[in-house]
Structures are given as C-alpha cells and as structure tokens.
Amino acid sequence: MAEKENSGRMTRAAAKRKATMTAATDEKRASKKRVVLGELPNASNVGVPVNPEQTQKLKRTVKASTRKRKPATVSETAKVSETAVESSVDIDARTDDPQMCGPYVSDIYEYIRQMEVNTKQRPLLDYIEKVQKEVNPNMRGVLVDWLVEVAEEYKLVSDTLFLTVSYIDRFLSLKNVDRKKLQLLGVSSMLIASKYEEISPPNVEDFCYITDNTYTKQEVVKMEADILLVLRFELGRPTIQTFLRRFTRAAQEDFRMSHLQLEFLCCYLSELSLLDYNCVKFLPSMSAASAIFLARFILHPKQHPWNHMLHEYTRYKPADLKECVGIIHDLYLSRRGGALQAVRDRYKQHKFKCVATMPVSPEIPPDFFEDFMG
C-alpha cells in the first residue's frame, strides 16, 4: 500500500514537472517572432525594438545628435563629398539588395565579359554560308519569331528566349540541319533553356503539342541529347539580357521619363535584334548597349543618347555601336523583317506600355555617333 502511494506521488510530481516545462517552452516560443518566408526583408540585419521604452530612448538619442550637428556650410560640404563618393561606387553596389552582389559585382561582370568573347561558346559569324545547306536567314527569322509566341504562350522569362536563340545559333554553327528539323531544333533548344532558367519549365509533351504533334516525344528528347552533346553541356553563357539589366540601370541615372517605359523599350529592341541573322556577329554586350542607345534616342530624339557613365559601364563609344544601332533601327521601322510580327505584337500590349507603337525619326543624326557630351 505504501509502495502504491509513493508511486502515485512520483507520477504526480513528474506530471507537474512536465507541465511546468511545457509552459516554459510555450512561453519561449511565443516570445519568438514568426516570419513567413515570403515576408523576409532584403536587408540581412534588421533591428527590431525590444520594447516601447527602448524605442523612445532611441528617438531621444537621434534628436540629441541632430541638435549637435555642425554648421550648415560644413554639412553641405559633407553632402557634396558623399555624392562624389557615391558616384564613384559601382551602380549595383549602391543598393542594400543582396541579390545585386554589390561588394563583388564589378568582378562578376569582368568575368562575364571574358566569357562572352570565348570563341568556343560563340556562334560562327557566317555559319549559314559555311555550314548550312538548306537553312537560310529568312528561315531562321521565322523560327525565332515563332519561338517568341511559344515563350509568350507558356509565360517563359526573357532569359529563356535569349538562351534558346543562343543554343540554336551555336548548334547551327557546328551541325548541318535539314530544314524539316529546324522547328525540332527550336523546341528542343527551348526545352533545355527552360530547364536552365524556369522554376516550373514546360514538359516535353507541351513542346510536342505546340508543334501540333509534328514531332514525337522521342524525337524531341533525341534532339535535346544531340544539342547537349554538340554544345558539350556548356549552357550558361551571357546573353543580351545579362548585360541589359546592368546597362539599363546606368541609362536611368539621368533620365526624366518613366524608367519602366525605358526598360520595356530596351527589351523590345533587344528581342527585335534576335530576329536578324546579321546581329549574330555582335557580342551580347554590344547588342545590349545598342538597344540602350536607340531607346534613349526614341524617347529623347533631340538629346544625345550617350554620356560618360554609359561609356564607362558599357565600354563602348557611339562610333562602336553605329552598325548595330542601324540594324535594330531598321528592324524597329520594319525596314527589316517586316513580316515577322510576333515580337511587335507582344510589345504593342498595354502591359508593356505599347512601346512598339512609339514614333521614331527615320534617320539618326550622324553627329550622334561621332562624339558625346558628359
């Protein structure tokens, strides 16, 4: 009987200790701030006031420090100095967004510059003349224009489209392709690019369906394997879009019009350049810089499109861009590739600010390519 009583006391004591520990754990959990992953701030260190008293103390400290400031003239001088320092800092390093990789963004783009000139990952400048027997520039343009529709249909990001065209040009530089297999090359290249860029890429059946089942699943997969082998699995190379992001930020520094309009116009001009076989010879950075030049001219036709900041970030002078700008300008005016309408129709939409409908002078003043004022 005594043993049962002692056992009961021990059980009750254990239950009491367990209840106390559970309460302490719950209290500790309640004191922690729960954050949904999507709500996480960009800044790596975000301070949270512990209590209202600390907040008030912080406010009093800030007010006190404000009263102890130096005379206005010295303050103004310091502000000018800060502006000068900021202008010397890389444009992508001025933000707190960790995705911009501010501390080492210059090194990243230096590496990308070296990648884009690597001849092993670049298409031949005249592959249609030297390698292809049935494919011509017009067929290539029709294929790219159709792929723009496919990208729009499956809501693919621009990077996927640019990579797709890059894979097509590189493959055609090394292997002769029957004209009946050109569309197969296009969808298989987009399948690979989607896997590389997209979070939820379309599957093989989707690409078969978009061709009205002209090709079987086995044919698409076989062509995918052929592309990977010919490209030696070297899939990550810089495209126009890679440089356009950086150049656009530099182009917005002294721009008074809508930044969104400038971005859409630059994207439109860049996608137009994909249609023309003559643009294959230009480096991605040059095509991106040319899109910036022409976009600024379209929006401000009386102002010189170039400045010292753009020269610094793109490393191109206006004279370097003359030929590329001329080709894209002709594309914009439909003097080239006028029958290819998918890109044009896409950027006539209101969600892209109807940039494809903006008027532009049929001629760019020759002196704009001679020199520029900073």
Note the main attributes of this structure.
Cyclin A, domain 1; globular; single chain; mainly alpha; 374 residues
Short synopsis of the structure:
The protein is mainly alpha-helical.
Shape: globular
What integer is the average pLDDT?
80
Give the proportion of residues in helices.
55-70%
Enter the CATH topology name of the domain at 240-369. Answer: Cyclin A, domain 1
- CATH superfamily assignment of the domain at 240-369? Cyclin-like
Computed over alpha carbons, the radius of gyration is 29 Å
Q: State the CATH architecture of the domain at 240-369.
A: Orthogonal Bundle
N→C terminal distance: 100 Å
Number of helices: 16
Report the oligomer: single chain
List low-confidence stretches.
28-52, 61-88
Largest sheet: none
Order of helical and strand elements: HHHHHHHHHHHHHHHH
In terms of structural class, how would the helical and strand content be classed?
mainly alpha
The CATH class of the domain at 240-369, by name, is Mainly Alpha
SS strand fraction: under 5%
Number of strands: 0
Task: Please give a structural write-up.
The chain contains 16 helices and no strands. It has helices at 2-31, 52-67, 72-88, 105-116, 127-130, 137-153, 158-172, 182-197, 204-210, 217-230, 240-251, 259-275, 284-299, 308-314, 318-332, 342-346. Helix 6 (137-153) packs antiparallel against helix 7 (158-172) and helix 6 (137-153) packs across helix 8. With 374 residues, it is mainly alpha-helical. Among the domains are: 118-230, Cyclin-like (Cyclin A, domain 1); 240-369, Cyclin-like (Cyclin A, domain 1). The longest helix is centred in the first third of the chain and has 30 residues, at 2-31.
